[in-house]
Write a structure and sequence with these properties.
The protein is an alpha/beta fold and 178 residues long. The chain has a seven-stranded mixed sheet.
Length: 178
């Protein structure tokens, strides 16, 4: 994968103490997801579900989960964010390659810290649904990397222990894909 240009974030946005406290909030909110089959969006090779979940602060997130029905040994898991006014569109090409995609719609007017927590929650749900680690989840974006993806990828690369709200240092980074 080619190296991606990265914007600099203010160092305080990556302060570990602050994010540990926020992760404790994430862990206190029960991680549950409701999957509703969407047969009108599904095909013979792709199964599509609408998902609904509650964030750490009780806001509902909506999105689509699409998964290849074809038996593929190593299925990639992708998370993509769309704006509050955008319709969720699936990446049909990636789905035919065996990818499982979670596309979620960010509610309007969310603060950056809450948007980061939303991304982490969706990554947690995506990993759990697919029986993977959160480090196996790939964040996918358009031309500009959203700030919440930059911060979430840094936190995930530090091997966040979602159950305990702790981070351990590690230089390996989470895959970001444009």
């Amino acid at each position: 994968m080619p190296s991606l240009p990265r914007r600099s974030l203010h160092p305080l946005l990556l302060e570990r103490k602050y994010w540990r406290k926020r992760l404790e909030q994430l862990n206190l909110a029960q991680a549950s997801v409701l999957l509703i089959p969407r047969p009108e969006l599904s095909t013979q090779s792709v199964e599509v579900d609408e998902f609904r979940l509650r964030t750490h602060d009780g806001i509902r997130l909506y999105g689509l989960r699409a998964q290849s029905r074809l038996p593929i040994a190593h299925q990639e898991v992708m998370v993509r964010l769309i704006g509050p006014c955008d319709s969720p569109e699936l990446d049909r090409e990636a789905l035919t390659d065996g990818t499982t995609e979670f596309v979620f719609q960010e509610p309007a007017g969310r603060r950056l810290e809450d948007r980061v927590m939303d991304v982490l929650r969706v990554c947690q749900i995506a990993a759990a649904q697919e029986g993977r680690s959160t480090r196996d989840v790939r964040l996918v974006f358009g031309e500009d990397i959203p700030d919440e993806f930059l911060i979430a990828s840094q936190l995930l690369a530090e091997e966040i222990d979602f159950a305990a709200g702790r981070a351990t240092a590690d230089d390996e980074t989470l895959g970001l894909q444009s």
